[in-house]
Design brief:
Layout (H helix, E strand, L loop, with lengths): L12 H17 L3 H31 L4 H29 L4 H8 L1 H13 L5 H19 L3 E3 L2 E3 L1 H8 L4 H17 L1 H21 L5 H8 L7 H30 L24 H15 L1 H12 L3 E4 L9 E5 L4 E8 L4 H19 L12 H14 L5 H39 L5 H15 L9 H7 L5 H5 L5 H19 L1 H14 L5 H7 L10 H12 L1
Parallel strand pairs: 3-5
Antiparallel strand pairs: 1-2, 4-5
Length: 557
């Protein structure tokens, strides 16, 4: 079914609650594990219907943030979903404590039960009002960013549509764009401080009501970290500071030299060379058509996937002034359909969407064939491997988007951008640990903490008078920090694994692709560290692995 034809109806949570209660009662009187599993299949069906309607609403709200109907529906789900999540945990608790658990574990796997245990520690009826308030605050933040109306020579731009000017080959134009961006964030800085302060206090209160000293351990549970913890992540960040930061700084030095600058400003960082960044050729429609050809040739599996996406109009990638910022992939269970949201703006980022978000969607499409829904419950550190690795696997087809002249530059720029991301991703994560470990920090103290981290992770950084950013506020434009706490390090873990695939595919593409397909089809049937082992990837938590990746990448340069 085409996305536009998918019917939407507000979920009646009172009816859902009654249906769930009936399923829980049936579980309690079931005679064996087989009978319980048949009941559990009915839960799959019920939950799929709920998630499909909630997701339809969310997508349509982000497609047009001024649509009053879907704004009201989104507000409704912000209030209702936390209570529904609690009901699902109550249901899972019966499964978790089942006398027939051994049979159920054989059916749905050990990982599913570990995730149930995590879920039970993460919510309780007592914190539902706080979770509702948290949803409302994050929705308010997203809407605040989407409200940007930036005047550009008589045209009104939002943050996404400003991006091409931030990456313009003309130094003066990108500086002007950076000043416009800075001025917008400066104009909402008090509101940004207020929202984040409320979010930190809210999340800390949730944690305390659940028996934690701070939000940090609760955040780990919410991110479903079921086979590693803080110690492993701190070790990863330590290795990045030691061996990756110098490597990334050498990339920034290359950009400075390539641009012929005596000093690299913040507004220059995103530019590959004096001719600017490679720009894709053709209209958005032509980029989609090139994507279809790329996936047709990559493999039979990717051809089937992308044909399905195009036939059912499951990509909305055209930039519009009332769309939410950013890009994402989500999933509509009733239709076994991934959906991709993006804002094409004429930059190479449009191609990044075709590779990154399609990596997510491809895995989601493959996972739809698995009848065990828990296997689709993938941790983000694994999910991002699917997307980031796809960016590298599609390298042989970059010429479809860029033409002969700029393909080589884009390939180099893409790899450089991935390398210089790693320190930033770690910085975002360490910042959030500092904030949630010290929830009484003032807004000014948070900004000072960020400035200190910038010196450690990006020592070359120079904002050259951009007031908002120089105050230590850059993090306030990173929406993950507001909306998805402690998520960002998952990008780092995944990018490091994707680099392993990059090195591998350059030596033996067939073996690397077979490993990737295996990783995608395993979904969340095993723990993250086990998935890597099965796919023959090394975990970046292990001492020396990050240094080895650096050495392998240096050979490419």
């Amino acid at each position: 079914m085409k996305f536009k034809d998918m019917p939407y109806a507000r979920v009646d949570f009172e009816q859902v609650k009654e249906n769930l209660k009936q399923l829980m009662d049936a579980l309690k009187i079931a005679k064996d594990g087989e009978e319980q599993f048949e009941i559990h299949k009915k839960f799959y069906e019920l939950n799929d219907k709920v998630q499909t309607q909630v997701t339809l609403c969310s997508i349509r709200h982000t497609l047009d943030t001024t649509d009053a109907f879907y704004e009201e529906e989104q507000n409704y789900y912000d209030r209702q979903v936390p209570e529904y999540s609690q009901l699902c945990v109550d249901y899972q608790k019966i499964l978790f404590e089942s006398p027939y658990r051994k049979t159920l574990e054989e059916k749905i796997g050990e990982v599913a039960f570990k995730n149930m245990e995590i879920a039970m520690k993460s919510v309780s009826p007592e914190i539902i009002p706080l979770m509702q308030e948290e949803n409302e605050l994050t929705t308010e933040y997203e809407k605040l960013l989407a409200s940007a109306k930036i005047d550009w020579e008589g045209e009104t731009l939002n943050l996404s549509l400003l991006t091409p000017y931030l990456k313009n080959k003309d130094k003066d134009i990108r500086r002007k764009a950076a000043e416009k961006q800075d001025a917008f964030f400066l104009s909402i800085s008090d509101k940004l401080d207020e929202l984040y302060d409320k979010l930190v206090k809210n999340r800390t209160m949730q944690a305390k009501k659940l028996g934690f000293d701070t939000y940090t351990p609760l955040g780990y549970l919410r991110m479903q970290r079921n086979c590693y913890g803080r110690e492993e992540i701190e070790s990863l960040r330590k290795q990045v500071k030691e061996v990756w930061v110098p490597f990334a700084e050498s990339i920034f030095q290359k950009r400075k030299e390539r641009l012929g600058l005596s000093q690299l400003a913040y507004s220059d960082e995103l530019v590959f060379g004096p001719q600017g960044n490679p720009q894709p050729e053709g209209t958005p429609e032509e980029i989609l058509a090139a994507g279809q050809k790329m996936y047709e040739e990559l493999s039979s599996e990717t051809k089937e996937f992308f044909d399905f996406m195009m036939e059912n109009e499951l990509l909305d990638v055209f930039g519009r002034k009332t769309k939410a910022v950013g890009g994402y992939m989500t999933y509509l269970p009733d239709y076994k359909a991934p959906f991709i949201f993006a804002n094409f703006n004429g930059t190479s980022g449009d191609v990044d969407v075709m590779t990154h978000e399609c990596g997510h969607a491809f895995q989601g499409y493959l996972a739809a064939q698995d009848p065990i829904r828990e296997h689709a419950d993938i941790g983000m550190e694994t999910a991002e491997i699917h997307s980031m690795s796809m960016e590298f696997f599609t390298e042989p087809w970059y010429h479809l988007f860029f033409g002969e002249k700029t393909t080589e530059d884009y390939t180099k720029m893409h790899l450089e951008d991935a390398i210089i991301f790693i320190p930033y991703g770690c910085m975002v994560d360490e910042f959030q640990h500092i904030v949630y470990d010290n929830p009484k920090m003032t807004p000014q103290e948070r900004k000072e903490a960020w400035k200190k981290l910038e010196q450690e992770y990006k020592p070359h950084l120079n904002y050259q008078g951009l007031e908002f950013f120089e105050k230590g506020c850059f993090w306030q434009k990173q929406h993950h920090i507001y909306s998805y706490p402690l998520y960002y390090i998952d990008y780092v873990i995944a990018q490091l694994c994707a680099f392993e695939y990059k090195v591998w595919m350059d030596k033996d593409r067939k073996a690397a692709w077979e490993s990737y397909l295996k990783l995608c089809t395993m979904s969340a049937s095993k723990f993250h560290t086990e998935l890597l082992e099965e796919a023959e990837l090394e975990t970046p938590f292990k001492d020396g692995v990050i240094g080895k990746i650096v050495e392998n990448l240096k050979e490419i340069f």
